[in-house]
Amino acid sequence: MKKKHKELANRFSQMATDYDDKQHNDEYNACASLVIDHADPRPDDVVLDLGTGTGLIALALAENAEHVVGRDISEGMLEKARAKADDGSIDNVEFGDGEFRDPQYDGEVDIVVSNFAMHHLPDEEKREAIEVIASLSPRRFVLGDAMFFGSPNPEEPLFGHGVDATTVGMLVDELTDAGFVVTAVERVHDQVGVLVAERLEIPQK
Ligand SMILES: C[S@@+](CC[C@H](N)C(=O)[O-])C[C@H]1O[C@@H](n2cnc3c(N)ncnc32)[C@H](O)[C@@H]1O
């Protein structure tokens, strides 16, 4: 693992025990709800959650999907996710090591989701991540994250250190270049949004 990822993974592992008890801001919670709603898996769908953390999105989607795969670089966050799955007797999820540009999963994927994680990548790596996601041929990719709808006021940053947000326009361009059609743009805040990207040519099951 690259040094940069190792440091970030360690930082999240140290936070993992208390992560779910932390007071997340309203934008984070609204974003998570929209990602879950837009993912909308069918009972025979396989869902891949990138930057799954403690499994907030993966575990919520497991109820309606056939199988959910959560990937993250932080072993501490993954351990917490596995413990939550065990506590809830949710047995159609698997959590394991994987990075956006190398998810370590080569099975079939119908829906890819990611909530509040891709902002850890610099812009060039976001583009590469979107290309990797497209190469998995999901019919839908739902991305909730920090993203700029306009020009953010530098006096009023919503997020601090570690958030490398990009513009909605740039993400839409990258998704389109990778072969997706952006079918919904949800503005949660002028610095937070959810994008729904679909591969309309994927045959229906
Ligand atoms: C703010 S948490 C969000 C977790 C979860 N998606 C949620 O909504 O609660 C960000 C997560 O992204 C993970 N992460 C950061 N960079 C990553 C990368 N390059 N590949 C995969 N996961 C990454 C972190 O380890 C952390 O668990």
Give a description of the structure.
This protein is of the alpha/beta class. It has one domain: Vaccinia Virus protein VP39 (Rossmann fold). It has six helices and eight strands. Strands 1, 2, 3, 4, 5, 6, 7 and 8 form an eight-stranded mixed β-sheet that branches. Strand 1 (46-50), helix 3 (56-62) and strand 2 form a beta-alpha-beta unit. Helix 1 runs parallel beside helix 4 and helix 2 (26-39) runs parallel beside helix 3. The longest helix is centred in the N-terminal third of the chain and has 17 residues, at 3-19. It is globular, with a radius of gyration of 16 Å. Bound molecules: S-adenosylmethionine. S-adenosylmethionine binds next to helix 1 and helix 3.
Keywords:
single chain; 205 residues; Rossmann fold; transferase; binds S-adenosylmethionine; EC 2.1.1.-; SAM-dependent_MTases_sf; alpha/beta; eight-stranded mixed beta sheet
Describe the SSE topology.
Layout: H1 3-19, H2 26-39, E1 46-50, H3 56-62, E2 67-72, H4 75-87, E3 93-97, E4 111-115, H5 123-135, E5 140-148, E6 166-167, H6 168-177, E7 181-189, E8 192-198
The protein binds S-adenosylmethionine (SAM).
Residues 5, 8-9, 12, 32, 50-53, 56-57, 72-74, 77, 99-100, 115-117, 120-121 line the site of S-adenosylmethionine.
